[in-house]
Structures are given as structure tokens and as C-alpha cells.
Amino acid sequence: MRACKSSLLRTLVLVLLLLLGAEGAKALRVKVVRVIDGDTVVLANGKHLRYAGINAPELHSPEGPPEPFAREAYLRNRELVEGRTLRFEPALRRRDRHGRLLGYLLLPDGRLVSEVLVSEGLAMACYYPGASRYRERLLRAQLQALRQGRGIFGSLRNTEPYYIGNVRSRRFHRPRCPRARKIRKKRIFYSLRQAFEAGYCPARGCRPWPP
């Protein structure tokens, strides 16, 4: 009798969890009304969403012209999400330093929008604190794009004899960059490909890529 009650209780708890999960999934659906660039969109509620764990080439570069493949990334992102209602998963770190939402959009087939962009060489898998949920998945997509020479990974051109990686931030720098001299725990890469294969991204200061 006690065993039957215990089994019934477990069943009720499972059903309750399933119902709550279904309701939560329903509540975490968002509509994208506008695409800003390869990794940022505007939602129907007016909030800006930045895809967590990736970085697309800059469409509006401080240096002037768009970075290589920035327009392609923007157009592909727009094709994938604009005007659609998709499932949204927030990152552990909910907002970035600009106040934008951080998270992931999932397509009906289960793929991450960011995963598609990385696999097509239109974005880079980058380490950010609080955005590690899908990091391994994004890195696998990046390795595939590197092997196939897709998008930005098909136009890598080394401009330095080596690059200095920061083990803590997972960013790499030009060797003569002042910031590189201050890195305590370094990792040396002898090509851009090596750095990307290890899951490192170009640093913002003294940017080592694009040339």
C-alpha cells in the first residue's frame, strides 16, 4: 500500500513538472520584428536581443566600412528570424553591458539561430561569462565551418608571425598590442586558424582580425 502511494506521488509530481515545463516553453516564445545585424534583433516588445555566445562581423564598424561578411550575416539572420515567432532561451547572464537581452533563439527544427550562422561562417563562437550553455555546440559548428572554409573562415590571412591568446578571456591579440603585454596567462597561436580552432575570438583592442 505504501509502495502504491509512493508510486502515485511520483507520477503526480512528474505530470506536474511536465505541465509546468510546457507552460514555461509557451511563455518563452518571442516575435522578432526587426534584425539589426548578424547577432542582434528587436523583439515585438521593443527590447533588443543579442545572441549569446557568438559574435558576427560588424555591419557598422567604427573604422568605417562593414567588416567582411557583415552584410551576408545580416541578410541570413533576417532570412532566419524576421517576422517569426520563435522559442527563446535566456542566457545565465540575462543582459550585456549595453542593457540588451542575452539569449538564444531556436528554430522549429531545434537548431539555434546562432548555430546556423556559425556553421555557415557568418559568425564566430566566442566565450562570454554566463553564455556557456551551448558553447560546445557552437564550437562544433565553428570547427565544421573551418574545415569547409565557409564564410569568414575561408578568407583567413595571417598578418603576424604569431598571436597571443588570453587564457582567461579566450581572446587573442597582435603580439605588439599593449594589452597583450599585460596578459598573465598566455597561449601562443601561430595562425588565425589555430586560434579559432581553440575557440578564441579576436580582441577588440589592436584587433588581429580582420586585417
Automatic annotation (TrEMBL):
| InterPro entries named in the record | Ada-like_dom_sf, SNase_OB-fold_sf, Staphylococal_nuclease_OB-fold
One of the entry's Gene Ontology molecular-function terms is: endonuclease activity
Task: List the residue ranges forming a coiled coil, or say none.
Answer: none
Gene3D superfamilies in UniProt: 2.40.50.90, DNA Methylphosphotriester Repair Domain
Signal peptide start-end:
none
Location of the TNase-like domain = 26-155
Keyword field: Endonuclease, Hydrolase, Nuclease
- Source domain of life: Bacteria
| SMART domains the record matches | SNc
What is this protein called in UniProt?
A: Nuclease
The species is: Thermosulfurimonas dismutans
